[in-house]
Specification:
Blueprint lengths: L5 H10 L3 E4 L8 H10 L2 E2 L2 E2 L4 E4 L9 E4 L5 H7 L5 H12 L7 H15 L4 E2 L10 E4 L21 E2 L2 E6 L6 E4 L3 E2 L5 E3 L7 H13 L3 H11 L14 H8 L2 E8 L3 H6 L10 H9 L4 E4 L6 E3 L4 E15 L2 E2 L5 E2 L2 E13 L4 E3 L9 H12 L1 H7 L3 E5 L9 E6 L6 H10 L9 E6 L7 H11 L2 H4 E7 L12 E8 L21 H14 L3
Parallel strand pairs: 1-4, 5-20, 6-14, 22-23, 23-25
Antiparallel strand pairs: 2-3, 4-5, 7-19, 8-11, 9-10, 9-13, 12-19, 13-16, 14-15, 16-19, 17-18, 21-22, 24-25
Helix pairs in contact: 4-12, 6-7
Length: 529
């Protein structure tokens, strides 16, 4: 059965021996982050284990509060969170949905009905407020105070305390499609925060749509869109925009809700690279094999996870920006200050004795590495839907996901590797990939030693490395401009005559299978190991 909420998930972790309860008093300012960082990097028997999930039960300055960290911090827990023995098994379910066998008879059509019914059962379900645990306690008006939450500061030079594991909920004003994203939230005071949705994120595009609709001065709207999507380096300052236009736009508000402490599948769904037309609530239902229960907000019209520990409600005012950062990020470096929209809280609801869920990101490997590897395995079929020649993909944790992608392909024609590079750079969030290495299908992309061997041996650097310009991740501190820079593709496949390579290509070394089998049979008797 699917986990109904965070508490069922914690109980499962406890029974599985995957949870460590911390009774000693620990400060959410830096100390929790240091403990979680050390736990996430634990090595046992020479293997990166990820350490246990941590439940802090004695939080300095917050009597009675509890904080959960490192809940996804190992491959075992990632599988446990998604209730599967294999992440590839979830990928196989996705393949069945996106590529069902074409029915050739009436009986074949009947056989498809259960699958269609299953998909229908994933859609979220709206319940009444009285049945929603997230509304057990409600704070409005002057009672709204974020300082009551045990929100962490994780690195010394951070600009303040940050909510690090939020499900940020917005809605497209034209289509009504709901979006759930995970964007860090810097606490300014008890009622306002920063909202770090980067310019290429869905919520930022929803804001740009509202700006287009709100402004009759198209030039001013363009300037404001560049600003309000996050980051000011390439845009005009607010002072350059006509005052009446700014006043008109600032009268428009975009509703926002934030869920903290949801069931693990819902939290995970906020980070997945979903197709634009698919809601994260539906992905949560698909992963849980059970519809997610929602409830309407108190002060916003948005529908939020009914079993969350906390719900923050409020709005972002168009045209309003404030400095956000620095923040110790998953790159292993601080992302520096920049201007981002401001989230104004109008209501906080929560369960009785709520549990605050948090994470720390930093120099890998950390908890997010396991989440990222799960995304890699589960959503490989979606990449293959667009680029069917892809055999496998590896996003190494040390490459912090958007800096390095290794791809194996079934090469069919000259220039095929370069076509795949271009396809990846045109594919949703994969457009941020800084370096792509393409190898042949017989190379195991999960074996970094093998990839290194192939790459180092198979390339003529001048011929096989290509560069292009385009959007890069906002966290990339090395790009020539914020959000814009160069990318590199390496064609490490065997070269063909059709690609201008006329020399013989040597075969790789492999032993005769009969000899291998004979040595296998005598190996133990040799006493070498």
């Amino acid at each position: 059965m699917a986990y109904t909420d965070l508490r069922e998930w914690i109980s499962t972790l406890d029974k599985a021996g995957e949870l460590k309860r911390i009774q000693q008093e620990v400060d959410p300012i830096l100390e929790m982050g240091e403990i979680a960082d050390r736990a996430s990097k634990l090595v046992r028997n020479g293997v990166q284990s990820g350490g246990p999930a941590l439940l802090f039960e004695n939080v300095k300055g917050h009597p009675g509060a509890r904080v959960l960290m490192n809940q996804f911090g190992s491959e075992k827990r990632m599988k446990l969170a998604l209730q599967t023995d294999s992440l590839d098994a979830i990928a196989d379910r996705i393949r069945t949905l996106i590529k069902p066998q074409t029915p050739t008879s009436f009986m074949d059509k009947l056989k498809m009905l259960p699958m269609l019914a299953e998909v229908g059962s994933f859609f979220p379900k709206l319940i009444s407020a009285k049945d929603a645990p997230c509304k057990q306690v409600i704070h409005k008006g002057e009672d709204v105070d974020l300082n009551q939450l045990p929100i962490l500061k994780t690195w010394p030079q951070d600009g303040g305390r940050f909510i690090t594991l939020p499900c940020v909920i917005t809605q497209d004003q034209k289509t009504g499609k709901r979006n759930v994203g995970m964007y860090r939230i810097q606490v300014y005071d008890g009622k306002t925060t920063g909202m770090h949705w980067q310019r290429q994120k869905v919520a930022a595009e929803q804001m740009r749509d509202r700006l287009r609709a709100a402004s009759t001065d198209k030039t001013a709207a363009v300037d404001l869109m560049a600003l309000t999507a996050g980051g000011t380096a390439q845009a005009a300052s607010l002072s350059s925009i006509h005052a009446t236009t700014l006043t008109r736009i600032r009268g428009d508000r975009m509703e926002v809700a934030v869920a903290i402490g949801t069931d693990p599948a819902t939290t995970f769904s906020a980070i997945v690279p979903a197709p634009p037309e698919v809601e994260e609530y539906l992905i949560s239902g698909f992963l849980r094999q059970k519809p997610l229960e929602l409830v309407r907000g108190e002060t916003v019209s948005l529908e939020v996870p009914a079993h969350a520990e906390y719900i923050l409600e409020g709005y972002v005012e168009l045209g309003e920006l404030r400095t956000e950062g620095p923040f110790g990020d998953h790159t292993g470096f601080y992302t520096m200050q920049d201007d981002y929209p401001v989230f104004h809280l109008t209501c906080i609801t929560h369960r009785k004795n709520p549990i605050y869920a948090a994470t720390i990101v930093g120099k890998p490997p950390m908890e997010d590495a396991w989440m990222g590897k799960a995304v890699e395995r589960i959503f490989l079929p979606l990449m293959q839907l667009t680029l069917p020649e892809i055999v496998d993909v590896n996003l190494p944790a040390a490459g912090v996901f958007h800096n390095l992608m290794i791809v194996s392909i079934r090469k069919s024609y000259a220039g095929h590797a370069r076509k795949v590079m271009s396809g990846i750079w045109a594919m949703g969030q994969a457009m941020f990939t800084k370096c792509i290495i393409v190898v042949d299908e017989d190379c195991d992309v999960q074996d970094l030693a093998e990839v290194t061997l192939r790459t180092a041996n198979n390339i003529d650097p001048e011929r096989d490395i290509q560069f292009t310009l385009g959007p890069v991740d906002s966290l990339d501190h090395a790009s020539r401009l914020p959000n814009y820079g160069s990318k590199m593709g390496i064609d490490a496949t065997r070269k063909w005559p059709a690609e201008g390579f006329t020399r013989p290509w040597p075969p790789m070394l492999t032993m005769d299978p009969a000899v291998k089998n004979k040595v296998d049979a005598m190996w133990q008797k040799l006493g070498i190991e």
